Amino acid sequence: MFVRDADDQEQRRRFTRRALIVGAGQLGALGLLVGRLYQLQVMDQDRYALLADDNRLASQVIASERGRILDRAGTVLADNIQGYRVGIVPARTSDLKSLLQRLARIIPLPADEQEKLLQRARRQPKTATLVVNADITFEQVAEIGLNTPYLPGVETDIAWRRRTFHGRDIGFITGIVGAIERPALDDDPVVRLPGFRIGKSGVERAMETELRGRPGQVRQEVDARGRIVRTLEQKPAQAGRDISLTIEVGLQAEAMARLRQERRAALVALDVTGGEILAMCSQPVDDPGELVTGEAQQSPPGGDDPMMNRAIQGLYPPGSTFKMVTALAALDMGRADLRERIDCDGDYVYADQTYRCWKRRGHGRCDLHRALRESCDCYFYELARRTGIDALSAMARRLGFGQTFECGIAQQRSGLIPTPDWKRARFGKPWHGGETILAGIGQGFVLTTPLQLAVMTARLATGMAVEPTLIRRDTGKPQPLGLQPQWLDAIRRGLAAVVNEEGGTGHSAQLSDAALQGIRVAGKTGTSQVHRASTDRASADLKWEERDHSLFVAYAPAEKPSYAVAVVVEHGGSGSTSAAPLARDVLEMVLKRDPGGRHTATTPEPNAPPPTPLKSGRGRQPS
User: Fold this and answer.
1) Which of 278, 169, 237 has its CA nearest to residue 597?
2) CATH classification of 59-244 is 3.90.1310.10, yes or no?
3) Is 349 helix (H, G, I), strand (E, B) or coil?
4) Strands 216-222 and 57-62, how do they pair?
């Protein structure tokens, strides 16, 4: 009896222990469950509410209409054509392949194109729109609408296509638009839209933010299968801003027609007061709009790249057009005097090296005025030696070389203004004095663009730090260069003498139009050597690619500058032969149109000697 009672008590104790253990386990599990529910529903409420909304709500970005590009007179250079496109959201159909086959009955969709679409659909999210055709007709849109019940997931919308005008004259300035290859993580979501286009070159690229506008947005409620239940909110897109250029298409077309007489050339004409670019020309050039459609012709042999805008991308030794930089650097450093004369016998010896003047018999004793007028190399060799490369480089940058400008066009090249540090980093070699000598006349390592040459000319003409611009806007008054007025006046008198005095190298730049009688041009010729063969042989005896580049920079009127122009003719020979007449013709175009409304004919100085035509001869031409 007692044994049975003991057994019963032992069993009850065991049961109680087991019950307690099970109960504790259940209580612990319940606690974990309650804790987890509390975390999910209370502590993480905001997080999961957002995730739930993401599953329930779909947000779609709407691209805005791109802004137009106009010339200074309001002529449309680039605008948009409203079209239609059709796409498919794969998440809204159970059989994409058969859907494409049904859609092919309405719009042309060959079997190979259908296969490509299927492959693209596998690589992108199912909720992303698969663009089937970006250019369909309104009739096709209407037929798709009538067959909506049989085309689940198919949607149509408006698509803007870019249209350009005057492409061969100005298209390389306005630029092109194209699809973005690989959007970055921090890019605007609108660039991920199927078929979205961004600026790829020219003004389209530089002014992308203003032209693009602000995208709109549509928020919709969708079911578990991604089907739209209702539209909750719609924010319309804001069209991009219209951009007005400083260029007038009529002047640009006239200048381009003149430039096409050369094989390779470039020019820039600008208003010297506000820096407005009035013409920017490059030859040869293709219409960029044809490049998009595949109609552009292949580049001809010999490097005549029509894809390059030589006005901002062509790099050329400036030759004697750089001599004003050397003169101002020497004056600024106190290493030269306006009345000092330097002997030129045709050769300049430095460190056992002989550097020749273009005039073999020399110019005799030259002051700054004569050295500029007759482009004496030996005079500027000596100034460069005294001044040093650091001061030359600093003055060059002060006048606009070695830099790009925020002027509204992309893909500019900065050229090269060398320094000892640059050479050491580039070649691992020290700077030599002979390289300074060459830099003093714009040869050696020095490289520049026609745009930079035009900016330099405008700054010399005004004494102000003129900034170029292609976009019509209030740029404010430029700041002074900080150079002594008497130095700038001496440079300007020398540049006027180049064109208008006996012995000047730029007589061919004198205006010939009867309507512009009395207006004097100031300028500087430049001849940059590109092949050693041109040292001892006349240009006519050389192959085209061995001839020197021809350069000319000028402004007019000489007494009260309004407009500046810079011209480069590749392999055109001396600056007086090709570039100066071209610059004259373009200045006449600008002055007759007078977009700034400022120039007036002036009477030449009564004591100014009549111009003397230059005589051609063998050997190196005057620079």
Assistant:
1) 278
2) yes
3) strand
4) antiparallel
C-alpha span between 304 and 260 (Å, rounded)? 13
Report helix, strand and coil shares of the chain as percent, to nearest 5. Answer: 40, 20, 40
Residue where the block lists tokens 């050295």? 371
Amino acid at 128: A
- Do domains 59-244 and 249-593 share one topology? The answer is no
> What's the count of helices (H) and strands (E) in the chain, helices before strands?
20, 19
d(CA 505, CA 528): 15
| Beta strands at 154-164 and 76-88: parallel, antiparallel or unpaired | antiparallel
Look at residue 44 in the predicted model and tell me its pLDDT.
Answer: 64
Q: What's the confidence (pLDDT) of residue 373?
A: 97
**Would you call 320 exposed, middle or buried from its count of C-beta atoms within 10 A (0-12, 13-18, 19+)?**
buried
Which residues lie closer than 8 Å to 11 by C-beta, 6 or more apart? none
φ, ψ for residue 146, nearest 5 deg = -65, -30
What φ, ψ does residue 235 adopt, rounded to 5°? -115, 115
- The answer to whether 249 touches 77, Cβ cutoff 8 Å, is yes
Interatomic CA distance for residues 155 and 244, integer angstroms: 36
DSSP strands (E only) in 63-144? 69-70, 76-88, 130-136
Q: Burial code of 531-553, b = ≥16 C-beta within 10 A, e = fewer?
A: eeebeeeebeebeeebbbbbbbb
Q: Measured over all CA atoms, what is the biggest interatomic distance in the chain, rounded to whole angstroms?
A: 152
What whole-number distance in Å separates Cα of residue 23 and Cα of residue 205?
72
Rounded mean pLDDT, 608-614: 43
Q: Using CA atoms, how far apart are residues 560 and 599, in angstroms rounded to an integer?
A: 8
When computed from its CA atoms, the radius of gyration of the chain, rounded to whole angstroms, is 36
Tokens of 356: 């020749």
Q: Are the C-beta atoms of residues 516 and 586 closer than 8 Å to each other?
A: no
The 10s digit of each residue's pLDDT in 499-543 is 999 999 999 999 999 889 899 999 999 998 876 655 666 666 788
What's 43's DSSP letter?
I
**Within a 10 A sphere around the Cβ of 270, how many other Cβ atoms?**
29
| DSSP assigned state of 294 | T
- DSSP SS3 for 135: strand
Cα–Cα distance measured from residue 141 to residue 400, given in angstroms and rounded to the nearest whole number: 55
The whole-angstrom separation of Cα 585 and Cα 572 is 16
The length of the chain is 623
Could you tell me which of 152, 263, 274 has the C-alpha nearest to residue 596? Answer: 274
Average pLDDT of span 321-340: 96
- DSSP E strands: which ranges in 481-593? 522-528, 549-556, 563-569
DSSP for residue 186: T
Q: Domain-by-domain residue ranges, the chain? A: 59-244, 249-593
- Give the Cα separation of 318 and 568 in Å (integer): 9
Fold designation for 249-593: Beta-lactamase (3.40.710)
Q: Cis before residue 215, ω within 30 degrees of 0? A: no
- The pLDDT score that the predictor gives to residue 617 is 35
Element (H, E) at 366: strand 364-366
Instruction: Give pLDDT tens digits for 79-106.
Output: 998 888 888 888 888 889 899 999 999 9
Closest CA to 251 of 491, 619, 490, 587: 587
Please choose, from the candidates 280, 370, 361, the residue with its C-alpha nearest in 3D space to the C-alpha of residue 323: 370
Q: What is the pLDDT of residues 266-315, one digit of tens each?
A: 999 999 999 999 999 999 998 877 655 544 444 444 457 888 999 999 99
Report the percent of the chain where pLDDT is more than 90: 56
